[in-house]
Write a structure and sequence with these properties.
Two copies of one chain form a homodimer.
Chain A lengths: L17 H8 L3 H8 L7 H13 L6 H8 L4 E6 L12 H16 L3 E6 L6 H4 L3 E5 L6 H7 L5 E4 L10 E5 L1 H14 L5 E5 L4 H15 L6 E4 L5 H13 L6 E4 L2 H13 L9 E5 L3 H5 L5 E4 L2 H16 L7 E3 L2 E3 L4
Parallel strand pairs in A: 1-2, 1-3, 3-4, 4-5, 5-11, 6-7, 6-8, 8-9, 9-10
Antiparallel strand pairs in A: 10-12
Helix pairs in contact in A: 1-2, 2-3, 5-13, 8-9, 10-11
The structure holds a DNA duplex (30 and 30 nucleotides).
Chain lengths: ~325, ~325
DNA sequence: GCCGCATATGATATCGATATCTTGATATCG
DNA sequence: CGATATCAAGATATCGATATCATATGCGGC
């Protein structure tokens, strides 16, 4: 080690302060502050003069100082949870589209978005935020509980809690999604439906429950085919296994579009006709589904809107307004399968 | 209006301060500060005692105060650019996978990620960051120029600048991607290649240039088919138009996997064999490509890694270390098309 | 001509943490 | 034994912005 490296002597980007501007303009710094925040307490002319001055000199507000004084950060932390098992992060299109809505809404409300991956639980930067948005609840809600303890305004994306949550939950109404698929199958006279997915995911479990319950009302009990991967291959594989076990089925509800597409491919290979012999409905309405041959029927959830909702709810919480959990309606998109 | 709503009397989450802890422990606050930052200036025993105390009382560092004092924010702003024309934001899987790598790398270096959509150019929160990562350069580099003026450490994702950039650029080596496709076509004896894409995007332009240049070395001039949308339909449409214009072609380089898949579908419909009659190569290596029938050949770019690189470079810039622009190699993935 | 009131501006204290400079106590050495 | 390190901890100033209280000026009414 040649040099002390840890203690930098305080970085210094030059940057004017309000005090500097004040000196330049021959007024007090408080007047600058007021002028720049459009306070009616300062004369219109002075105000404009000072604003012009600030602009000319490229003045930049020191956010830390303001936040310190005002005891708030105008920041919402978004915590992206790791996926339960696989080491991969949740950086799939799915939670990320939420981010779009979140960012849009918060930014236009004058808030900043602090993006974090869950790591050091007690990350200081998270605690300094005014609110929290949690994407992905973690295995058995552990993440939720962890952050809940911070006592900050918090909104969680995911499946509805099993009653009495202390925090707000926003999510797609997975149960209703499952119901709508069941209704569709019933309406076209299917009697032997199969569910492909992984009920270990709370969301998928809800879909399954809705599906099962609705069918039960009509005396039908679907077959549950558990599949951990949501890949096309997994869908292919699922159908093949059904076939080799000589299961009779005439409808498939797949928990993702990829699974559904795989299923269809396998069906076609087996010489079965979609949807004549077997009807298939996927989930998510991924862009490709519509272009698939045949065009895929699916359940659509609006991520973008979900993000906006999440953002609005944290903001409401932050401003101490009453807020309720909310499930967003899903849409059954009937195409050709 | 019933009440003054704008001026809240200073929000107050209780929260201990170092001063409080100091009083509790009977030491001075500076000692607390030192103890909590593991300074060797304080006795090991006292240090541990104080740390324990802080933990017990759930002390939380006030980040704003520290940032103010230290004149840094330990924050990097990531600015997600709007797509040039379409009103849609860049919230597609593409830039978002970059985010994954960025977030991972910055977080583990102790930095926070501030996510912003480009909006008010001079967003205060951006200026308070220690560095900038720009995803998407905007129409004709306007975004880049805008942020460049801030004079902050900045790294841009995208096509290599046309010489003499003042900022660092990290990107996929699109030119090389184009070249590798050309080489492949040449090696399997194709003489009439077509390029489908939109050269208005700097990235795609690079792909085209590489493609064209490499082919030119062998006396071949590809046909350029301009398509603005990167959808499957657009690919279908492109091939149909080729066919109706009775163009002779035996290879297609499509600028996105979706385009490629559309092209293949259209070819099959027209009774042409892939790859016997026409070879097709896409771009991006989207998950579906591998499962497509036939499995799609494509050019892969590693987004995750790109994000990591971006993050490392800003950090280096922030620490005043020498940094250079870098193009990441692409991989030609040859499957069946 | 004095009081009251509105308007415009200033002085000061403060938010919470840390750099820097001091001070006090103990240890080391010639 | 006195001089000088070494270690531990405190006092103070400071980062930049803003809330709060105080001050100056103008103007109309009685």
């Amino acid at each position: 080690m040649t040099h002390a490296k840890k203690k930098q002597p305080l970085a210094q980007r030059p940057g004017l302060t309000m005090a500097d501007l004040a000196k330049l303009a021959g007024v007090s710094k408080i007047t600058i502050s007021r002028a720049l925040s459009d306070s009616p307490l300062v004369n219109v002319e002075t105000r404009e003069r000072l604003q012009e001055l600030a602009r000319k000199h490229g003045y930049k507000l020191n956010v830390s100082a303001r936040n310190l004084r005002l005891r708030r950060s105008h920041t919402v932390a978004v915590i992206v949870e790791m996926k339960p098992s696989s080491g991969r992060t949740m950086w799939d299109p799915y939670p990320l589209s939420l981010l779009g809505g979140i960012s849009q809404e918060l930014t236009s409300a004058g808030y900043s978005v602090l993006l974090t991956t869950r790591q050091g639980a007690a990350d200081a930067s998270v605690q300094s935020a005014d609110g929290l948005i949690l994407l992905g609840q973690g295995v058995r809600q552990d993440a939720v509980r962890l952050y809940d303890k911070l006592g900050m305004p918090m909104v969680v994306w995911g499946a509805a809690g099993q009653g009495g949550d202390s925090h707000i939950v926003v999510g797609s109404d997975n149960r209703q999604g499952g119901i709508s698929v069941a209704e569709r199958f019933l309406s076209i006279g299917r009697r032997n439906p199969v569910f492909i997915g992984n009920p270990d995911h709370p969301e998928m479990a809800q879909r399954l429950f809705g599906f099962v319950d609705e069918l039960a009302d009509h005396g039908i009990k679907p077959l549950l085919l558990r599949r951990a991967d949501f890949t096309l291959e997994s869908g292919v594989d699922a159908v093949r296994s059904l076939h080799s076990r000589k299961v009779r089925f005439d409808a498939i509800f797949a928990c993702s579009d990829l699974l559904a597409m795989g299923a269809i491919r396998a069906l076609v290979e087996l010489g079965l006709s979609v949807p004549n012999d077997v009807s298939v409905i996927g989930y998510d309405d991924t862009p490709l589904g519509a272009s698939f041959l045949p065009p895929l029927s699916t359940v659509r959830q609006n991520w973008q809107e979900g993000g906006v909702l999440l953002a609005r709810k944290v903001l409401a919480l932050i401003h101490s307004q009453p807020v309720q959990s909310q499930m967003m309606a899903t849409t059954l998109v009937v195409r050709s399968t």
